[in-house]
Amino acid sequence: MLRDNSGRGRALQSVGMRSLVLIGHGSHLNGESAVAVYRYAELIRQRGLFDEVIEGYWKEEPSLRQVLKTTASTDVTVIPMFISEGYFTETVIPREMGLGHQGPVPPEGVARVIGGRTVRYTLPYGVHPSMTDVILERAREVLPDASPHDTALIVLGHGTTRNENSNKVVYQNADRIRESGQFAEVQALFLDEDPKVGTWPETVRSPRVVVVPFFASEGWHTLETIPEDMGLTGTVTDFPENPHGHQQVFYAKPVGTHAAVADVILHLAEEASGAGGQGGDTERGHEAAWQAFLKGARAGLRIGEALVTPELGVFELRHALDEGRPGADLTTLVTPEGVRDQVRFTDGGEHRPVHTLRNLPRGWRAVLSEADLRRAMHYLYPAVIEETYAHACHALRPTPWATTARRQTGIYAKVQKATPEQVEHVVEDICTGCLRTRLWAGQRLTHSFLDGVPGGIPCAEACTFIVAEVREEVSGKRGGGGHSHSH
């Protein structure tokens, strides 16, 4: 099985500074979507092989458009946290991150210099050959005595008609395991393309059948769709009257949630184009932004809805409306991750994909060192400090709505047809509840929180939440006065 190679760790660490960025899909609606990426970031952070591990998302913050600004190093490796190659890894991520690349990514990845940073973009972790070991680990967990005499393995993929590459990795893993001779038969089946998972009783003959979902995370498909399509009632299900006689199905957990995926990610980072170099330096603009913030924090600072107060060598962070409330009345947090998990949901329990909406939950305080304050602020208001400082230096270039709309593809291409009135309707509904000033819509911001104006935060480009809602508006699916939950 995959194991960490500590010698490799020393080699990675002994040279300049390195940033690792893990890219997830995220969701505007479901707060659980981002959890797997957070978990892997934490596992890799604990190894200490990179100076920092940052998460970025298509539908959460920091967004794909912002995430590179949040890296402290000029040496950045970007790994898409996807199970297979496809539309997101070949089109959306490279486009939104400005990689100047479209289409299949070569095995060694793509390397570009973007804004003074060397950025390496790799294949998604799911296509790495060592994922075969992860499938076998999952199979052994659910059936330790699986044997080539009486046990079949089904590697179950999502499948899609949109990208022919997405099923390739499922077939490759099935082929590798079949050649190893560890199972009586090995089948690749799919949810959304042939051969479909519902056909398994006809195609699989063995009395014992292990099903391993080749999915990135536990979710609707692994918990609802697959069990329904296969007639499963739990981890082990008996089928006494199948076409090939009595069969028992053992349903494993998805490969993407296995801890060994952290090793796969590190293998990918190691093998990325040009990764053996000397590492990078501190990115000067990024460091200057944080020093400007810390200077304010040491004197006491309000930023958005949050209050930062210096206290005996540490910092206290809390909701500004909780100013003066005794600490005993508040939940005390002591880690950046504690802050992250606290601020991801509103007081009413709703997911907050846009962190500058005026719905920061109350009732907590965080007590943090200076280093932890930086990471906590990154989770509280992702990319806000970097973008605000860049704006103060006249280095933040706004992207008008028309340019954002023109860039969209796939299901979002229809936003190009949106009328100014339709865009304005969405903006009135969402942006009026946001702290940011819409530079992309021609608004001006003369003072920021760095000058003592708490709500002074620039917005250089319409976020993906706006893009998604404009699509709903054009499709006629949005109700008045609130956003729909159908995307």
Automatic annotation (TrEMBL):
Domain DR2241 stabilising: 286-391
Record keywords, A-Z: Lyase, Metal-binding
Domain named DR2241 4Fe-4S iron-sulfur cluster binding: residues: 393-472
Name of the molecule in the record: DR2241 family protein
Coiled coil: none
Pfam (any one): DR2241
